[in-house]
């Protein structure tokens, strides 16, 4: 039953290539997260604006992002936009897909965070003479980002894991794509993917621990 | 203006894919929840130090992409153990463990939300540990855990889109097969997305409603 010879050396020999892939994975994840947070802030402002069209856009975005698979969103970015003649590179497709997903989930997180900030603070800021925008930017926004720091960390981990879906639209430079190409070369499926799994695990651990350290430093008071 | 090559047979093909998505989801969620409750209770009873191996294993399932878990499980069952399992079985096993890893955390959170004083009161009244768990903890923890559990079940349904990697033709995979043949990506993806949305949205709303209804404040 158990006559399989593990060839870890062959996998380890490809480690540098896979680490290069891991860097691309991190690039996608970080970019999608940064743009996602900015978009989520904009969507949150849409929601608060009271203008019906804008809040409907925000609502639709959140519901679509949360109620369809991430893979579907990536297909939509790649094949869906493609049918409008907008042919994106795999890197852009995966970036748009994950960013769309991130923005949707983060907007929902921000909504929860906003509930924790008392209304009276905004009113106090306004009565001190701040404009609506100033009150949002100086009083509400910093607290909102602070409260939703932990959910943002989770979303970052999700974004890293989601980059592995890029392979479905032909991305072969990220960690999963590189691993799959190497697998086609060597057929050491288990060894290569086990190594990729370890790299993913280490990356997510570094991100969560790093976030915890940053949180301890930022939120000392 | 709007003509399509989509035939009734293609619709049946899509519906079969949708059926596969639902079957995989239901099996994995049921098995994963049972396992998750067991793991969650063990995790709670043992405490963080003695349950460290369990925490580590469950954490692995949450920190590695599902795609890699599926490929690894398939390679492990197929080429190392030579078990000759179908892709469907592998998909269900992996998704169940994946569900269990998340469910264990939800269960632990639910148990921890039950005030210790309530449980001590139950034990002082002469209830056994089992009775305390069944009659006191279960109803109270369910209120805390059910909304997140609904979210988890929906998450598993969405993540089941990845089982194509072990040759299971579920909804998104059958959509892609049709896209390759018909070259009408937008229409087909819309149908596929609408299907996921129609299942997920009402349940997600129901979860949100329960959360609001059952929260103490």
TrEMBL record, chain A:
Annotated Pfam families: BPD_transp_1
This protein's UniProt keywords: Amino-acid transport, Cell membrane, Membrane, Transmembrane, Transmembrane helix, Transport
Entry's Gene Ontology cellular component terms: ATP-binding cassette (ABC) transporter complex
Entry keyword Flavoprotein: no
Entry membrane topology: Multi-pass membrane protein
GO molecular function, one term: L-cystine transmembrane transporter activity
InterPro entries assigned: AA_ABC_transptr_permease_3TM, ArtM/GltK/GlnP/TcyL/YhdX-like, MetI-like, MetI-like_sf
Record protein name field: Amino acid ABC transporter permease
Localization of this protein: Cell inner membrane; Cell membrane
Entry similarity comment: Belongs to the binding-protein-dependent transport system permease family. HisMQ subfamily.
Transmembrane segments: 22-46, 156-173, 193-215
Chain ranges of the ABC transmembrane type-1 domain: 18-211
Family matches, as SUPFAM superfamilies: MetI-like (SSF161098)
PANTHER family: L-CYSTINE TRANSPORT SYSTEM PERMEASE PROTEIN TCYL, MEMBRANE COMPONENT OF AMINO ACID ABC TRANSPORTER
UniProtKB/TrEMBL annotation, chain B:
ABC transmembrane type-1 domain segment(s): 18-199
Keywords of this entry: Amino-acid transport, Cell membrane, Membrane, Transmembrane, Transmembrane helix, Transport
CDD domains, sorted: TM_PBP2
Residue spans crossing the bilayer: 20-42, 54-77, 83-104, 186-204
Recorded topology in the membrane: Multi-pass membrane protein
GO molecular function: L-cystine transmembrane transporter activity
SUPFAM superfamilies listed in its UniProt record: MetI-like
PROSITE patterns referenced in this protein's UniProt entry, alphabetically: ABC_TM1 (PS50928)
UniProt keyword annotation of Glycoprotein present: no
Pfam families referenced in this protein's UniProt entry, alphabetically: BPD_transp_1 (PF00528)
Location relative to the cell: Cell inner membrane; Cell membrane
Span of the signal peptide: none
Gene Ontology CC terms, in alphabetical order: ATP-binding cassette (ABC) transporter complex
Similarity section: Belongs to the binding-protein-dependent transport system permease family. HisMQ subfamily.
Protein name: Amino acid ABC transporter permease
